[in-house]
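Hmm, how's this folded?
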Amino acid sequence: MLSVSNLSVQFGKRILFDEVNVTFTKGNCYGIIGANGAGKSTFLKILTGQHDATSGHVSLEPGKRMSVLEQDHFAYDAHTVLETVLMGNKPLYAIKQEMDQLYAKPDFSDADSDRVGELQVHFEEMNGWNADSDAAALLSNLGIGEDLHYTLMGELDNKLKVRVLLAQALFGNPDVLIMDEPTNDLDYETIHWLENFIANYENTVIVVSHDRHFLDAVCTHISDIDFGKINHYSGNYTFWYESSQLAARQRSQQNKKAEEKRKELQEFIMRFSANVAKSKQATSRKKMLEKLKVDDIKPSSRRYPAIIYDQEREAGDQILNVENLSASADGEVLFKNLDLNLSKGDKVIVYSKDSRAATAFYEIISGNAKPDSGKFSWGITTSQAYLPLDNSAFFENKLSLVDWLRQWAQTEEEREEVYLRGFLGKMLFSGEEALKTSNVLSGGEKVRCMISRMMMQRANVLMLDEPTNHLDLESITAFNNSLKNFKGTVLLTTHDHAFAQTVGNRILELTPSGVIDRYMTFDDYMDDNTIREQREKMYGKP
């Protein structure tokens, strides 16, 4: 279907890809993974012709069509929503435009009539007469109602634009569908719809995503970028991660016999295959992992940060008490009538369809903002560490990372450079990296610094507002594992489904008309029909 031959990409002296040869076949979904800077987005741009390779070439089977999820949210501002979706099938849209132009001619000739006849034949072959209704149905499935179909794209907010551009990419059943971070700015319901759509998609899908739940739900293969090469591995992200970790452990077991290692890997494959077959996401197009050869499992060269949250002291039974708390922004109610009694060991997923609500809640209980009404009090044995959504205020000074972290040292020992480098090293800032200037860090590096700061605080309550933003898969996975193992109390807002499901034991949803508070897992909460009806009413839906 789509093949890459002898592909090399070099920027100056840096070699990004070296003689890459891979094939993407029909019926499979490939998740492209790699450390930050490995070249994931560059590779997608080469596949789509937006970027030239140094050498080698990309070949799409003749007669096949490729579609790409558009990243420029302003490219179609002058077009209506429905027209933007139709433009996703470029050959069909070109025919439609030419026919419309011919019909609009004041001196419509016999030659024009003949040309229209030819175009209509092609248009019918491409199911063009149903194009408008198909595009409308796709939009409706993505939560874009008919009242918006003839609205200009420039009048939509960013979140709605993302859905329209997603519909554009999906429109017309492309043979190869390429998506770079498709779940960004989508809510859980839309992501769930997209997961089901792609899991049952019969053509080729190539996707880059930091959403592990999404990769697990849709991928038949993981395409790993490592050492300038790309290798396909059967299975989803979790299988790749766990199998690569197992292979890495085995590599270090010098005294273990080869046959024992082979048996351990084979048992792992069989166990994972059984779990996949029973999972909600399993479909007929999921590859049977028992067909995988043991020799195909390789250790990864990935480096995972060591995120370990310790408590300086264990909190008492009283953690946080909130009474009748309310907040608004720009004249809109974000949440109201919030009563909350937080218990020791609660790991609360703070959720809202309006992300401003969760951020306002954190800012209030951290003492950075005032509520419209109500009050709160922390237990006297509690200590809090807060990872805010916007961390820019922490990085305005031109300090080395060692001096940056020293700002939160409490003792002479903690002010020692060796001590500080230890925390930074755990977050992969080793050697000269620890002397970087704090105001020139990337988004992911800033979050890793904030995590180092939180670890050094040794708090027994963690408040985390979208902690996975800007992080790579390795950091997200390590972060997730650390929160699962943390013995204290957690308040967490995240768009990472796997984070929410594996960490949370309580769901707190903030709405403009009240609050829903339940002790249950995130998946159970989202799947509960009674709660779903209650949520829709509280958001003002009929």
